[in-house]
Amino acid sequence: MKKITAIIAFLLITVSTAFGQKLESTTLWKITGKGLEKPSYLFGTIHVTCDATLSDKVKEALDQTDQLVLEIDMDDPTMQGKMMQGMAMKEGKTLKDLVSEEDFQTIDKLFKEHLGMSVSLMQNVKPFFLLAAFYPKMIDCPMQSFELELMKVAQKQKEEIKGLETVEDQLQVFDDIPYDVQVKDLIKTAKDNLAHEKETIKKMLKIYKEENIEAMLDMMSEESSEVTSDYQNILLDNRNKNWISKIGVYAKEKPTFFGVGAGHLAGKNGVILLLRKAGYTVTPVK
């Protein structure tokens, strides 16, 4: 169970729907203007992948910057403890409060088959994170992490690693989205034994490899998840807006490499257009 909760604590995926002006196909963007003495860089990651190898252009951008800023400060030694503590549902709710006995047994079967444990051991965990426990099972390879690769470079270069938000900020998102909405995706996944999620991630990985951030958002807009379609203001928009002033502060301090989920980049309320609206010049790095 400890291993499973550690995996969940690490996995916070980002999703969105597409709208707004079309952006070039690249996951790396240069931030200049508005009084910045040197450029900073914005990189879109994907949290579930088979290959987190950093491209030459990303390595070059890392060499040109002096600090790494991720969604949260992932080298904070208290991070994992805070996440494990904050994954529990509020007011003592459990999975059995949210689903029928039949659906509970279907979910329990999924846990036993793929994780070798009963969901009863984790039934106080927010449904989103119960589903996240299966991400490593949705790809046919050992899961890798862009965030960890970025951190290795920053640590080698003896640079600071910081965050755009706190662990508590991220966890609050999954209290603001109703638990009974979150659990619907878990039930669907259990009923088809991961089949749909496997196909979705396979398609997303292909799109990510092409660096087509617009197509990634188009794909997510076609998905049937209520969490994605009905709560993108909580999942993405509000967070993106909160990040803009923080990005400005960090970039003014020193040249900074920002690494956030690629789902945060595009769209009217995506980080790229919000930065441009704030007066920065944000250009694609091909």
Describe this structure in words.
The structure is a single chain. The protein has 13 helices and six strands. Mean pLDDT is 90; it is low at 12-20. The chain has helices at 2-10, 56-63, 79-86, 101-115, 127-132, 146-156, 167-176, 179-191, 195-209, 213-222, 226-230, 232-253, 271-277; strands at residues 28-32, 40-45, 67-70, 160-163, 256-261, 281-284. It is of the alpha/beta class and 286 residues long. The protein is globular. It has one domain (2-284). Strands 4-3-5-2-1-6 form a six-stranded mixed beta sheet, sandwiched between helices. The longest helix is centred in the C-terminal third of the chain and has 22 residues, at 232-253. Helix 3 runs parallel beside helix 7 and helix 4 (101-115) packs across helix 8 (179-191). This is TraB/GumN family protein. Keywords: Signal. It holds the Pfam family TraB_PrgY_gumN. Residues 1-20 form the signal peptide. It comes from Pseudotenacibaculum haliotis.
Q: Which residues sit in consecutive blocks of at least 5 with pLDDT less than 50?
A: 12-20
**Oligomer type:** single chain
The number of domains: 1
Percent in helix: 40-55%
Main sheet, how many strands, which sense, barrel?
6 strands, mixed
Nearest-integer average pLDDT? 90
Outline type? globular
**Radius of gyration using CA atoms only:** 19 Å
The CA-CA distance between the termini, in Å, is: 43 Å
Q: Summarize the helix and strand pattern as letters.
A: HEEHEHHHHEHHHHHHEHE
* Number of helices in the DSSP assignment: 13
How large is the share of residues in beta strands?
5-15%
Number-wise, the strands total 6
Biggest sheet, spatial arrangement of strands: 4-3-5-2-1-6
Coarse structural class: alpha/beta
